[in-house]
Structure formats: structure tokens, C-alpha cells
Design brief:
48% helix; 5 strands; 15% strand; alpha/beta; 6 helices
Length: 172
């Protein structure tokens, strides 16, 4: 009898996975609502021929090469389509992309035909993309001084908060 009661109680409670799914759906709903609210202003700018400002936030490096490369490919796509200016900001594990000798080792099994992370970073950088990195994250990955690319700027959360006000922001 006690076993039956315990099994019934377990079925009634949300599992952790069910909770995360529900939270994710709610988050997507809020993101969609925010996108709908900002769309008219952005659509008006598009009619006027104004280009957008994009911030690609990379939170993965060698720990998930598919996501790291995908983020860089999105920056490249924005440039190729002439959609606007692109800024790549690296944080958490993505900060390791700012360390010399690391990006050339990051290769996505899915997107390998597009090159390694360093090759894509070079392409987008040559087309005007700017790069920034979270200072504590860069320090954690020993990307400082001569170990960090000279074209990557140290930019904290204050930089991100200031700059997302008028930009499309995509987190990877």
C-alpha cells in the first residue's frame, strides 16, 4: 500500500526535466513577446534602408565546437547578407576563443567545411567585425597580455548592457 502511494506521488510531481521544459517554453514566449513589441520600430528602420547592429554572444568554445562555430557562421552570414554591423562578444567558455593558438584547434564536425574557428574569425574580422571578451572569463582561460589576440577588446557586462539597447542580440 505504501509503495502504491509513493508511486502515485512521484507521478504527480513535476520531474526536473518537465520543469525545465516548461520554463524554457515560458522563456521562449517572453522572448517572442519582446520580439513582437520591437518589430515595428525595426521594420520601419529597414524601410528607411538603415542597417542593423548585431551582437553575437558566444558562450562556448572547445567544450562545444558546434555552437562556437555556428555562432561565428551567423556573424559571417550577417556580413554576407549586408544586414549590418557585427560585434562578437565572448564569455564563459567562449572566452577561450580570445586566446592565441586556441581557435585553430576548434573544429566543428557539423560545419567543418567552413573552416576552423580561427579561419572564420579572420574572415569576419577582415570584413569589419569587432571582438570583445569578458575580462574575468579571459583571465580564467589565461587569455591576457601576449596570450590574447591584440584585436580582441576586454569588455565587461557593463559594455554588453549598454550596447544591447539598440542591437539584435543572439546568444550561442
Amino acid at each position: 500500500m505504501e509503495q502504491e502511494h509513493r508511486e502515485e506521488k512521484d507521478r504527480e510531481e513535476l520531474s526536473r526535466q518537465d520543469f525545465l521544459k516548461a520554463a524554457g517554453i515560458a522563456g521562449l514566449g517572453m522572448a517572442g513577446l519582446g520580439a513582437m513589441m520591437s518589430t515595428p520600430a525595426l521594420a520601419e528602420e529597414a524601410k528607411e534602408g538603415k542597417k542593423g547592429k548585431y551582437i553575437i554572444v558566444i558562450t562556448h568554445g572547445g567544450n562545444n565546437p558546434n555552437r562556437a562555430i555556428w555562432a561565428l557562421l551567423m556573424a559571417e552570414t550577417i556580413q554576407k547578407k549586408g544586414l549590418g554591423d557585427v560585434h562578437v562578444w565572448m564569455t564563459i567558455e567562449g572566452a577561450e576563443l580570445s586566446k592565441k593558438s586556441v581557435p585553430e584547434k576548434i573544429i566543428s564536425p557539423i560545419f567543418s567545411k567552413f573552416g576552423n574557428a580561427m579561419e572564420i574569425m579572420d574572415r569576419v574580422r577582415k570584413n569589419g567585425c569587432k571582438f570583445g571578451v569578458c575580462p574575468p572569463c579571459a583571465e580564467y582561460f589565461s587569455a591576457k597580455g601576449n596570450e590574447m589576440f591584440e584585436w580582441v577588446e576586454l569588455q565587461g557586462g557593463d559594455w554588453l548592457m549598454k550596447n544591447i539597447q539598440d542591437a539584435w542580440v543572439v546568444w550561442f
